[in-house]
Amino acid sequence: MSLKLTARLIAATSVVALLAGCDAATLAKLEGREAGAIPADRGFGSSTQHNHLLQTGQISYVESLAARFNETVPDTINFAFNSAQIDEQARQILARQAHFIRQFPEVRFRVYGHTDKVGSAGYNKSLGLRRAQAVVHYFASQGISTSRLEAVVSYGETQPLVQTQDRERRNRRTVTEVSGFVQSNPLILNGKYAEVVFREYVNTAQSDNTVQGGLAELLAAAGGG
Fold it and tell me: Is the CB of residue 190 less than 8 Å from the CB of residue 203?
């Protein structure tokens, strides 16, 4: 038997053994898939998938960072009835939000105010705005520039979490969200990612950060260089 024929037999035997070790579910996933295709599920290869989605415009850095913010810290605080005062529980949540925001000076945030349905629509619109403004004032006291906080919005009573006409604490809330990048800071847009990575590395080494890895990990997952 020639060496070439022997090599072919060994290769064929290896393929058969490999397929024999695959279960039906695995084979079903492989069937019809183009070689090198992006995995459809999370896990191994998720960074490649994430980078593919970013490069093709299917998701953006803003959406990615917004998701990270929501996964890292609570985005909502609640208020007492007919009040815009920040209580101790809310203050602890805002402290975590502020810690996250301080680490990303290139990013803008927006605060939304909400109320329950007790009272007139006009009054609740004003109350929701006062609650959002109270959050902005707290962030300012933590060293965050208000120029990074886009239009503070009040939805009043129009977007309740719980559908009720009665007093409902869960409806009396503010929500903080990532909204975009600071226009005057081109750091994210001009490719100088290394500056952010270095800054975040130093920051994480100096304190026990809530944000693990910060923007460095975000950019690594996005394939930025």
Answer: no
